[in-house]
Structure of CRISPR-associated protein Cas4:
Amino acid sequence: MNTRQQDGQIGGVHIKYLHHCPRQLWLYARGYRPEQRSDLVAFGEVVDETTFTRRRDLDLGEAKIDWITTGAVVHETKSSRAPSPDHAAQVRHYCLLLERRGVTVRGGTVHYPLIRRTTEIHWNNDARAEALVSEKRARTVMTAAEPPSRLTRVDCRGCSYLDYCWGD
């Protein structure tokens, strides 16, 4: 595991991977990074770089938030064509990280520019509790001696970790 993860720092990618596929998180925590060769990841980066070009990323060290607007609303841009619970979990985690730094967070918005939709993410006691549970689950997965079971092959479609999990 890298130094940041040994220090207990968990970023948004960790939470997104946890909710998408715990095995993906386990591999990522050990430094396996096939997403660098993924066309889908490259496409997502292009969408991020060419959408909302007047905003600036906020780098928290363990996490990089796409941008924050006045009133502490977290914004995340996704290239997906469908909202996903892992996107909401990632935004809740960013809210938690900001709150720990003394910021009074109002919530978040996930932007899906390809389908011209947004999803509002509420920040309240329930959302905070969900974020804390996700963080705890991520730590458990990351420190496990063995990888979690792989998903069904159809659930792995488009995943950059597919060859690792399903390669023959």
Observations:
- The longest strand covers residues 107-112.
- The helical segments are 3-6, 12-20, 22-29, 39-50, 85-100, 125-143, 162-166.
- Residues 1-6 have pLDDT under 50 and may be disordered.
- The domain at 3-159 is CATH 3.90.320.10 (Lambda Exonuclease; Chain A).
